[in-house]
Fold this protein.
Amino acid sequence: MTSPAEKTAAKIVVAGHICLDIIPSFPAEGTETAIEPGLLYLMGPAVCATGGTVSNTGLALHHLGVPTSLIGKVGVDLFGGETLSFLKKIDPRLAEGMIIAKDESSSYTIVISPPNVDRSFLHCTGANDTFLADDVDYSQLAGSKLLHFGYPTLMQRFYEDGGQQMRRLFEQTKEQGLLTSLDMAMPDANSPAGRVDWRAWLAQVLPSVDIYLPSIDETLFMLRRSKFDELTQAAGGGDLGNVVDVDLLRELAEELLAMGAGVVVLKRGDQGLYLRSSTTDRLTKSWQNRELQAPCFEVEVIGTTGAGDCTIAGFLAALVKGANPKQALVSAVAVGACSVEVADSTSGIRPMSEVKARIKAGWKRRPVSAVTVDWSWNEKTGIWTGPKDLRGKATT
């Protein structure tokens, strides 16, 4: 039974892509090369866990202590049952908003990760491809503060129509009085999603998005494809956060603001977060016309799966509790740092009180590459303030 305190607490709804990850365990020795056709390989037990934004961001929020509802779509099959069972084991309420389609197959990913070899993925999009705006019961959103949607790039109905489904979902969400936020995933360049006119898609969707939180890689792919190819080569195929300068960050963010987003947060991998906000009053005054960067915290990195999703969870958890943008950015990179200290997506996430205590104890930060002499550092807040920031060196 839900307590009165839980009923009045800030609540986030996380919707979008969900799948079941099946990860066969390889022996520590004896599999030094890629798998060859026609051979039998003896394996250890398979590890199963849920993946996708609904699971990663949603469960991270739950572990942080934010009352959270999940909306993903699964079929009535073995993988769908396992997905729901996984969520129910954590908290039965997490599965209450899931959409169950009896004639659909559930999404799954087989992660093939032999020792000393790059991982490969066998992915079935399943019921994610048939998720529609009308699948959501919007009356159940009443009383929540924010709906976060993730990975429309991996959901056919949401990317194939130029953004109409996505905008419809967000507009109906806003009619219930909720803020909206959106995260993307990198589309396969050779897939139908990779051939979408993403600039036109974003122009359709972003006017209904209060907080847009893509990675710099995804943003370059969608808005500057030739620059994306150039920088990917310069980065040796790795994350582009280390090779993007502050002028390009600002240029991309301001283009996204001009399309209609209220706040743009660009994820930069181990370089942290860049935030640029508009002059609109969608959030409080402290969020208007800001330019900020948050460096990552120093940790021993064990695994980066789901780190971006957990970073977003830290940001949104702070936002719905009334944080200003500097506080939300610090919360975001702190939660993201906790997530990479373990191999899976969310087991490293602790309650927000513990995260704050770690920051207060003097958790050291990494340097940031994309700052110049006209940026100012505030040791107290742990944030870089840019020259385009309306509040300059203010601590708010």
